[in-house]
Design goal:
Blueprint: H1 2-23, H2 32-45, E1 56-58, E2 61-63, H3 71-85, H4 105-110, H5 113-118, H6 121-139, H7 144-157, H8 159-163, H9 170-189, H10 196-208, H11 222-225, H12 229-238
Antiparallel strand pairs: 1-2
Helix pairs in contact: 1-6, 1-7, 2-3, 6-7, 6-9, 9-10, 9-12
């Protein structure tokens, strides 16, 4: 009964946040890295290539391989797969990267019709993160009202609400980092000293948006990441 109640409230947080995000939905790109990572997803899924052909050009920049982590591109792939079989079935535009020589090239990159549908990714991710935050707060012993208020504050009035509209990878990284912490808390409660799930989530967060913040890339291997679980679980226990 307790578990069912938590699921209902978490679902309500998810739906509330998602509705709010869709009211602010724009469906176009906001950044160069967002445009490049979206086009790279096409190259990975449709061309089975790690290099974009043609490359994406913007001002003085030209990219055949993005300099950013590949996680966001991988997250777009399921959406591209579904769209290519449904709304864009028989429409070759979903498979192609625009040629720099075409008229209105920059406009086509920024206001891409396929991306209008794929732009739902970050709203979904951020709403799910808010729901997981609720579960984290409950796991830490907060009352359901306080946990719900914290989750909705995060989802509706924090910078997360702004990022849900943008095309950056931070929401994806936040989702996996918070999931790692939640799974570490669950493992601590169940006295499971080492679990592969938290380490895998942390690995995915670094693949989603890896920045040089002092975390050595050797820890991006899920097996290596699990070696850090004891430290995470100690922190969770102290909380």
């Amino acid at each position: 009964m307790e578990s069912s109640s938590k699921t209902v409230v978490a679902s309500a947080v998810f739906i509330t946040c998602l509705i709010f995000y869709m009211l602010l939905f724009s469906g176009h790109h906001y950044s160069l890295d967002g445009m490049v990572m979206f086009q790279y997803a096409k190259s990975l899924y449709f061309d089975h290539s790690f290099k974009m052909n043609p490359p994406v050009k913007w001002a003085i920049f030209e990219f055949t391989v993005p300099p950013w982590a590949v996680g966001l591109s991988l997250a777009y792939i399921p959406l591209l797969a579904v769209l290519s079989k449904t709304i864009f079935a028989g429409d070759g535009s979903i498979r192609t990267i625009p040629f720099p020589a075409v008229p209105n090239y920059e406009y086509y990159l920024m206001y891409n019709r396929v991306y209008e549908y794929c732009a739902v990714l970050n709203p979904l991710i951020t709403a799910l993160t808010a729901a997981i935050l609720y579960l984290v707060c409950v796991e830490l012993g907060w009352s359901k009202k306080r946990a719900g208020a914290a989750a909705l504050t995060f989802g509706l009035v924090s910078p997360a609400a702004v990022y849900s509209k943008l095309d950056f990878a931070q929401p994806l990284a936040s989702l996996f980092l918070l999931s790692a912490f939640f799974l570490s808390l669950k493992a601590e409660r169940k006295k499971e000293r080492i679990s592969y799930l938290p380490g895998s989530c942390r690995s995915l967060s670094w693949r989603g948006n890896f920045d040089p913040i002092g975390i050595h890339d050797s820890c991006s291997n899920p097996r290596d990441s699990c070696l850090l679980d004891a430290r995470w679980q100690t922190v969770a226990h102290q909380i």
